[in-house]
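Exercise 7.
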Amino acid sequence: MECITENGIRYYITPEGRFPSVTSILSLLPKPGLENWRTILGKEADKIAAERAVVGSVCHYRILSRYTIRLIEPPKVFLPWKDPEKWLKELNMRAEICEILWDELSIDLEPLYVEHTLISRKHRFAGTLDLLAEIDGENVIIDLKTSKEIWKEYELQLAAYTIMCEENGINVDYGMIVKLHPFNDVESDIIKLDKKRLDKRGKEFLDLVVMFYEKEKSAGKL
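Solution. The predicted structure, written as tokens, is:
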């Protein structure tokens, strides 16, 4: 599905019109910790954030590619301020750490959907989930994260994917956020969200959808 980015907002082009992405809607959330970090580091913060984003994309690509024969588009990895040879070496190292952390978790799963794009016609948003898999006879929606902390917005993101799955006839029994942190303090973790918690976060996410469209309307974009 085609995507465009306008003023930092990512839209999916659907037969019903352009729908904002889940992550763009989540950008409405205040992030005081991140803002303070950017204030302290200044322009260097943008470089660090971009580097971490590339590492995350490469880790996703390496792990998710294991579970599908469909070609997943490889991420763009080159950054103008990084030496290509050294950067590729570092990326490969970080990705290998992520793969080791993933393997150590020993999650026995049967993939159902990998890098799968969904839309909510009812609520007019779209997104691409990492992985929906069967684990011990239950459908589990899995989101991979390479950050050090598990933030509330990750739960909202998982809930948004659940809303889209169920609207499209795909049952979700529970959610799982898998943290694979491949940096200095290497660590992994699994946070499980039962259906009750997903439903609660889903209602919070839909409130953000309403806010997003109100903002679009006030800006004359609707």
